[in-house]
Design goal:
The chain is mainly alpha-helical. It has a single domain (7-214), classed as Up-down Bundle (Methane Monooxygenase Hydroxylase, Chain G, domain 1). The protein is 81% helix and 0% strand. It has helices at 7-40, 43-74, 78-106, 108-112, 118-143, 147-155, 157-177, 182-214. Helix 3 runs antiparallel to helix 8 and helix 5 (118-143) packs parallel to helix 8. The longest helix has 34 residues, at 7-40. The protein starts with 6 loop residues before the first helix and ends in a 20-residue tail after the last helix. The relative contact order is 0.14.
Length: 234
Amino acid sequence: MAEHIVASFDEELQHIDRLIHEMGDLAAVMTQSATRALLNSDNALAQRVISDDTIMDAKQRELDECAITLIAKRQPMAQDLRAVVGAIRMAADLERIGDLAKNIAKRVGAVGESATPRSLAHSIDTMAEMVLGQVKLVVERYVERDHEALTKLRDEDEKIDIQYTSVFRELLTYMMEDPRNITACTHLLFCAKNLERIGDHVTNIAENAYYVVTGEQLPVQRPKLDETQMTVGS
């Protein structure tokens, strides 16, 4: 990013970048902790995720205020304006990732009460690792202004969609085989859907980040490969 004659302008832009980075780190921690709490029936960790959502909301509000003040005071143009507007959009997606992690955490108690066999959660564990990798990388690649890596990240959401479809079918099979699994599997299905939606928000962040860095839009969004849409809505 080019330096400006007024040093405080650069400091304000850097502050917004730092907030995006902090929100990205927090989103990754919340996603990882929510999944770990789910798989280990850790209610204390789940409560921590729920509490962290308040911090995420506060960071988004701070970023919005900084961005609006900067636009009013500096009247940025071209790349600077893209960066500020892009940051507002990315912050909204990161805040939503926090909400989805909180939703997973809220189901930990219900899943734990159902005496769910460990095997039911194995596929979700795999999916969570994929999603977590995406969350961790997307803000890092934006901070590095690596537009090629951002393009790759956007396209790799396809793998998460495929894994979600696999999880959906596996959990459905468990429910059909033994009705005692229905309650736990229903909760796990919603958790898997939340993970899939986190992947969608990472895609949004990658697209906005790419536009900030290059000034160009990525090609039209690829068709989604989540084959369960007719059964479970978003």
